Amino acid sequence: MEKPFRRRDLLGIRGLTAAEITGILDTAETFSEISTREVKKVPALRGKTIINLFFESSTRTRTSFELAAKRLSADAVNISVSSSSLSKGETLLDTALNLDAMAPDCIVVRHGSAGVPHQLAKVSKAAIVNAGDGANEHPTQALLDAMTIREHKKHIDGLEIAIVGDILHSRVARSNIHLLTKMGAKVRVAGPGTLVPTDFAHLVENGLTVCPHIEDAIDGADVVMILRIQRERQDSAYFPTLREYSIHYGLTNERLDLAKKTPSSCTPAR
Amino acid sequence: MKLFIKNGHLIDPAASENTGMNVLIEDGKVAAWIKPNDDQPGDCEVFDAAGLLVAPGFIDMHVHLREPGQEHKETIASGCAAAVAGGWTSVCPMPNTHPVNDNAAITRYMIEQAERAGLANVFPIGAITKSSDGSELAEMGEMKAAGAVAVSDDGRPVPNAGIMRRAMQYARDFDLPVIDHCEDKSLSSGGVMHEGKISLLLGLKGMPALAEDIDAVRDIILAKETGSHIHIAHVSTKGAIEAVRRAKSEGINVTCEVTPHHFTLTDKIVEGYDTNTKMAPPLRGEEHLEAIIEGIKDGTIDAIATDHAPHHADEKALEYDRAPFGITGLETAIGLACNELVHKGVIDLVRLVELCSSNPAKIFNLTGRGTLAPGSIADVTIIDPELDWTYTNAESRSKSRNSPFDGWNFRGAAVTTIVGGKIVYKR
Question: In what helix (H) or strand (E) does residue B256 lie, and over which residues does it extend?
């Protein structure tokens, strides 16, 4: 069988084709059953070394990557860099070149600044997987969300999908918008004007609508995605209080009733 | 010592000259213009400028030479070496040194360091406020006496309109232009690139064009009221250019400059997150680039200045968010102006000389410069507008390597630079 994915790195969804995305999802589905076995291990990545390089704290994503590596028989090393590399007088480039010299096959990187995986990919011999970079992308989260949607709805194309909340600061929203529109879904986004810039409508060529009210986004949707408020990324107040936010933009049962009969609601991790 | 520049094409917009005049230089000054068929004066070194443009020395109104204080990025000597290699005979360093050039002693020190290097002329720009912190006026009169040609707080623009108004009223007494890096930081702080579709796409925080527009409009209103000369640094937005155009038509004393990177690149190049695409003001969108080209064409924009901002490689090898703003520019400016403006038919060579020499001299009141009329100082930039060459960061004379134009091919370059009658650079 021809390999659907021929790239070295997974930096984002934006540069992928629908065929590549489908290829990844199909492959992932064949592996998902491993986690239900008595002996949760296959030799697919035996002899490979994976470094999980996390510059931002993470529980779910880091554990997912670590378990995935172990269940596929790779050797995984976890590095959490709590303080920035610069505080030790080291540049990002130094860190990358030092790790690369240890000849890992893959570096999974999460960083609070957009573009770090792209910068590492330029200097590293290892394959770089983006596990979330600033407000740019979180491709594996979007792939996971797509798997969940396929599981519930059997397909993605033709679906109406609402994404509501803090769109501006969300890498999950960006990756999901790219993925879902590439796969033929229609995406509607909504949230306070301060967190959903009107320019967002031009983010992708087709399939994206910025709705003025959360109700417009949810009305008749097949899937509703709620994004949490990224307080840690907000340098100033984008809305007055969480109380007011939850009244006007929270997902209530009344609002969910606007969606199609059996909607799926995902709450992405980050 | 006499130097005779013959067979060249002399362009001197200040003297309305655009001919095949030969130029005789003696004792650091232009002694005479000699008609092509007249006798060559005896007893002089001869420079054959056949096929070349002979222009009054180019003056870069906006550079950062990092000395004193950040000599690991650049020194006045290395910056001047890069300047003359790029065809600039004079450079005007901004005051954001450490300590800030907010007093006559530092101004004098910068000029002395330039004299020691013996390459380009250095005309420092003094600070508007002490330490450029936006509160108390710096000693402008003393700095002017020491050789400063203008005042600016550059990257830390005076946020308080009341202090800016007072600065303009005070600078007027000393005939000092006030230069403003127009950026209302309440709108742009935390931003690392132009705010628009690309910043949303890349997940980087944007600096909206209106942060520049609002400050430019404020400054123009203050210039109108005070009668002072405001010079807008590195103009980059459609709104600011329109404001300057309107102000000029109303007779307000406003001038502005543009950088080569802003008339060449757009924010699209930030994709890939190369930190050598990060500068302030940021690279803007297509509509702004079009407005810049229009402003260069119709005369709204007065000058080309590089905003040469060297940074050490380790400082740029950081996350896009954390890397410092700024790129080098002294050695690529003429190449970019030839590629993007002259060869694309936006401007002719006369206008190029106006933008790089006669206008900057006029704006900073540099008497005897910006022209090669007999009696003026013999700063000469000799250009081959057809020379094909490639710029590489590795060969740069600057101490720093932070240019996004590494490996770019150019048609047009300075081939010889003469300062005070002395050849200081030959390609």
Answer: strand B254-258
